[in-house]
């Protein structure tokens, strides 16, 4: 480790005076004037005492415990070191095409200094003429040209090695089982000696990728593949392009996703930053399906700009594609009394404003702020986190924490007025949600966050085309799961029973709405129970009729007896 540290430091320079310092590296120790303190060894500059304003600091680096400071100091001072255990010769052999001038190992020279060994180029006694004369004094060089048959097999193997050809790499290819299946050997260098150079394999992979993706793997390559009619993107990538302000938008949504989306009561929206390399991010629409017990993705958009204007454009395009795929515009509950009741998102102001502007364009009878007050609900976790991270006074933070849990409208108005008086809050909304919608919808965006985590398992920092293809397979896999459940599980129209009750906690009470989902089996049981009760009632009615007839018969007989005895009424 000491030799490695010396080699690593040997290439460095003292940063003082823009690396123009004339000092050398030295190993010294220091203490904090405490006689019981342990000395600390460090690497410093021999001209540390020379300091001028504006020229920075001299080199300083602490040594770790696994480095011998005495040996390192001798190496820096070029002192003679006993190398009895070291070999006198070096066995490094490099190709004549190599540009390296050092071997990479420490060697001691006659002056006592320790440096990397110098590579000595040796000639050959064989003269290069029409007829070679002499005897070679070096081993034959390895073959540098790959056989044509091997090249062809390698190209076929690369094309079939990975479902996403544009994501293949030499390491993935070498670690696959295709080498054994194609060539019958475990390692490529056993096929041909020239394949010992991994750069040759890297160039071959790049060549194959260039043939299949001549315009790369970004937005230009995606547009070219869509124009060529690549089947992988058909019926999924609805729109891909670049707008005049430089915004890239790729709309990904199938007809099945669009029809399922418009049937939701609520859903969650969020932006993820890890899946696509570069400046393109991924926007998703997700919701947890209670019937299938799975989180589904209903639409995704790849974009590089995330201001309010770009979000307005994004949502407007999504609404337009819903119309084209389903034949009707999305329904909003506070406008149409049916359709979407709640949209959950984090506290991204640009995202919320863009959504409101898109809704205003769809339904212009309300302003974008009014639309948000009826449909947008922020994540409670993001809300609390932002309060905690902001430098508000403690009394203001307490009011903000209390605001979502206020029991009465009067208390809500009091909190808003107190926040106004504090002059800490300059922008706020009063939400107009139905009680059932408020309590039936989640108060966080955990579903969309879990979808991000699941998709990241398939890879991060991907190229745009690979990210789209893997997202498509992820969506299809989830929807096929739902179809499989439909095949083996009898499902029907479920009815929701809404039950309201009050929870008392200390001096506070909160009204809670609980929704019971009644499936077909439960409904059938209820129908049987109702029929049984109906039969019981019919039996009782028959008994009552029979009793009435018997009483009437007795009354007539009694009246006849009275007449025979001469009694009159």
From TrEMBL:
Source superkingdom: Eukaryota
Residue ranges of coiled coil: 518-566
Record keywords: Coiled coil
Record protein name field: MULE transposase domain-containing protein
Organism: Rhizophagus irregularis (strain DAOM 181602 / DAOM 197198 / MUCL 43194)
Lineage summary: Eukaryota, Fungi, Fungi incertae sedis, Mucoromycota, Glomeromycotina
């Amino acid at each position: 480790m000491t030799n490695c540290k010396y080699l690593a430091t040997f290439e460095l320079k003292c940063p003082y005076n823009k690396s123009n310092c004339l000092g050398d590296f030295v190993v010294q120790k220091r203490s904090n004037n405490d006689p019981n303190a342990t000395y600390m060894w460090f690497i410093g500059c021999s001209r540390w005492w020379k300091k001028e304003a504006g020229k920075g600091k001299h080199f300083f680096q602490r040594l770790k415990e696994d480095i011998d400071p005495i040996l390192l100091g001798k190496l820096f001072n070029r002192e003679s070191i006993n190398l009895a255990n070291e070999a006198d010769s070096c066995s490094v052999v490099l190709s004549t095409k190599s540009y390296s001038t050092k071997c990479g190992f420490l060697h001691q020279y006659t002056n006592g200094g320790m440096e990397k060994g110098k590579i000595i180029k040796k000639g050959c006694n064989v003269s290069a003429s029409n007829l070679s004369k002499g005897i070679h004094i070096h081993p034959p060089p390895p073959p540098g040209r790959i056989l044509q048959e091997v090249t062809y097999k390698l190209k076929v193997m690369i094309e079939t090695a990975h479902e996403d050809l544009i994501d293949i790499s030499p390491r993935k290819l070498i670690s696959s089982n295709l080498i054994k299946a194609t060539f019958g050997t475990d390692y490529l260098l056993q096929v041909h000696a020239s394949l010992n150079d991994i750069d040759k394999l890297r160039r071959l992979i790049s060549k194959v990728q260039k043939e299949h993706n001549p315009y790369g793997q970004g937005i230009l390559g995606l547009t070219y593949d869509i124009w060529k009619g690549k089947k992988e993107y058909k019926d999924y990538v609805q729109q891909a392009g670049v707008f005049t302000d430089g915004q890239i938008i790729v709309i990904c949504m199938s007809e099945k996703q669009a029809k399922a989306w418009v049937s939701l009561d609520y859903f969650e929206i969020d932006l993820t930053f890890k899946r696509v390399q570069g400046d393109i991010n991924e926007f998703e629409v997700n919701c947890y399906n209670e019937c299938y017990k799975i989180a589904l993705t209903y639409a995704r958009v790849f974009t590089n700009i995330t201001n309010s204007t770009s979000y307005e454009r994004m949502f407007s395009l999504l609404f337009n594609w819903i119309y084209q795929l389903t034949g009707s515009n999305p329904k909003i509950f506070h406008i149409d009394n049916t359709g979407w009741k709640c949209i959950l998102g984090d506290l991204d102001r640009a995202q919320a404003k863009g959504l409101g502007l898109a809704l205003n364009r769809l339904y212009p009878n309300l302003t974008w702020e009014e639309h948000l007050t009826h449909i947008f609900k922020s994540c409670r976790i993001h809300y609390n986190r932002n309060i905690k991270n902001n430098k508000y006074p403690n009394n203001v933070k307490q009011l903000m924490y209390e605001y979502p849990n206020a029991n009465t409208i009067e208390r809500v108005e009091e909190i808003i007025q107190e926040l106004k008086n504090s002059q800490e809050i300059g922008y706020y909304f009063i939400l107009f949600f139905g009680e059932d919608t408020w309590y039936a919808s989640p108060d966080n965006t955990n579903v969309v966050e879990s979808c991000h985590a699941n998709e990241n398992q398939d890879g991060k920092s991907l190229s745009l085309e690979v990210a789209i293809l893997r997202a498509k397979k992820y969506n299809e896999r989830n929807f096929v799961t739902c179809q499989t459940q439909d095949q083996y599980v009898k499902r029907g129209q479920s009815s929701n029973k809404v039950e309201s009750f009050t929870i008392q906690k200390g001096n506070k009470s909160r009204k809670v709405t609980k929704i019971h989902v009644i499936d077909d089996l439960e409904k059938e049981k209820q129908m049987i129970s109702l029929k049984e009760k109906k039969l019981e009632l019919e039996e009782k009615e028959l008994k009552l009729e029979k009793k009435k007839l018997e009483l009437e018969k007795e009354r007539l007989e009694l009246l006849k007896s009275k007449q025979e005895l001469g009694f009159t009424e």
